[in-house]
Specification:
Two copies of one chain form a homodimer. Chain A is of the alpha/beta class. The first copy, chain A, has eleven helices and 14 strands. In chain A, strand 1 and strand 2 form a beta hairpin. The two termini of chain A are about 35 Å apart.
């Protein structure tokens, strides 16, 4: 039995048998990385706001195989299939890559969208083997559109796959910013503990000392929660809102997590982003966010150079920004599909 | 009387009255910037190689008005109109921007392509006024596709214009690399003398001292020639080939010119690129070329940090690279147009 998530609180076990075309959203995470949870929340908001003519139906990644079978029985030509965005296309997170291949090769007659991703196949034998498997699966589907969320990934996807490739920001940047909080205290350090980590722990300690003025609370956390075991479409919204609340109370965020920078953008929180092992945050920052004053990216490891940079970020004022138009290529793809099938908008 | 440039050596004053659909290429430069000359040469190669079903016809920028009148008399629906690529969309180079507006607003029923550009409207009253004029002109043309050559420009074009925006590299990167020269001597400094210059002359002098080992010739030049007054489609190819020959003889190139980095890529010449006033080279480097070992970008002005970076570049070996697939969005646009008009390929 498969759970299909529809709207804000409906969990059904049978796909609705109505006339509305369906937008199937595969790969929805249940693990506790709030960045990935925010991505799945944001793409739901995007489709429901911009394309209400579709019935948006989410499928947990753990249900991929069972859901493919159910959906294959009922899918119609106007229906759209999609796989969740994020930063996990490639050989580093094989569970996700395997689910993604299965979806792409199972619905080759339907418009299939890979929501904005970054991509990294390791340059070794393991990476090459997995790359070939993905190429074989993706290229079975002539209606598959890959969306890259940074220019490096756009280049890599076009080098790797024969599929169509579009270019938009990470879906979380579709969300509108909160009203910015004026009363703030504290500095939040958000650092990953996984294989992508490159920032030295000693540097992190030194940066804490730079920001510790005796009055400011200095805390460290990660956007991967350890307070819950599992997150579903029913619980993700509140946890995401709580996280934005946490960010909006900080004077500054220091991080190596791309989505911690995105949460800082949405909450108007000064933020310095360090790199990961293959540049996914760096590229996305320079592609979409360099014009936003209160955030910055660095590869620096010299404390004497970092100190003035951090102090400067604390002084910057907020300004309006908008990256909504940068989703145009995705908008047009879905609009043209609706037109082709005369779906009323 | 207007000169129309067709093929490699034909200059005609009447548009050929044959059945072949035309690809009109406006804005061809006669000034002596070899980067811009290389762009116009490369887009001719691209269309003639990839889309030989079209008759490629070039029009000098100085002939824009007269040519618009001539072409309006004979243009057919399958014909394509285009304006040359480069790094001059915006308020800094108004001659070009004015010609571009005139072309875009004059052929609103034809597929119109703005070849890969970077864009910069100054953030002041002058910039705002010019931006409005461009918006009005561009938006008269629903068949206009702007192509951005870096992600910053892709974002800016989508914020500025309602037109379609595609994303590809600079056209010069379409050209195939030369066989790399093994016998090299000398260091070439290529620096701009215009309003985009930001690198300090004293730093340039210091870098020359770093590379001067008593045996190595150290020369400074610019990709803007002062040895000729004017370049046309008849003379540009030889001058461009001579420039590539010059680059291919160097051990290293130090520059703040984006196209000097591109020439270094094509000739396998180690190259360090510094920034200009608004980041056009920086973004294009990170978007398309970061994976090429023998070139690098820097914003650094500390000689102690630059010295090892330059010495490291001198040791790097060549490897194959290919950005050809990154032109896919442009390929598909023209392919679909040919299909729509049943033009035999």
């Amino acid at each position: 039995m498969v759970n299909f998530y529809i709207g804000n609180s409906n969990v059904v076990t049978a796909i609705p048998n109505d006339k509305k075309p369906k937008f199937f959203s595969f790969g929805i995470p249940t693990y506790t990385n709030l960045g990935d949870q925010a991505v799945s929340w944001a793409q739901k908001r995007y489709i429901e706001n911009e394309f209400p003519e579709y019935e948006f139906i989410e499928i947990l990644e753990e249900d991929t195989e069972a859901a493919i079978k159910e959906i294959q029985k009922v899918i119609q030509p106007p229906d759209i299939v999609s796989f969740v965005g994020g930063g996990n296309m490639g050989s580093l997170y094989l569970d996700h890559e395997i689910a993604r291949r299965r979806v792409f090769e199972s619905f080759t007659d339907n418009l299939t969208i890979s929501f904005p991703q970054s991509i990294h196949f390791e340059e070794n034998q393991h990476g090459e083997i997995e790359k070939k498997k993905s190429q074989e699966a993706y290229e079975k589907n002539p209606n598959l559109y890959l969306v890259a969320r940074d220019a490096q990934s756009y280049h890599r996807m076009q080098q790797t796959f024969k599929n169509h490739v579009l270019f938009t920001p990470d879906m979380v940047l579709y969300l509108q910013p909160k009203t910015f909080n004026e009363g703030r205290s504290g500095a939040l350090f958000v650092f990953r503990q996984d294989s992508e980590k490159v920032v030295d722990d000693q540097l992190i300690s030194s940066l804490k000392k730079v920001l510790d003025n005796g009055k400011r609370s200095i805390e460290q956390t990660d956007t991967v929660l350890d307070t819950v075991d599992r997150i579903t479409p029913e619980s993700r919204r509140k946890l995401f809102k709580d996280e934005l609340e946490l960010f909006s109370n900080q004077e500054i965020v220091i991080t190596d997590r791309w989505h911690a920078m995105v949460f800082s953008v949405l909450t108007g929180t000064p933020c310095l982003l360090f790199g990961n092992s293959y540049g996914k945050g760096k590229h996305a920052y320079f592609d979409w966010l360099e014009h936003i004053d209160w955030i910055d990216y660095t590869d620096e490891d010299d404390l004497e150079r970092l100190t003035p940079q951090i102090k400067h970020l604390l002084t910057l004022t907020k300004h309006p920004y908008d990256v909504r138009n940068d989703f145009n290529q995705l908008d047009k793809l879905i609009e043209n599909h609706s037109k082709k099938f005369s779906i009323n908008r």
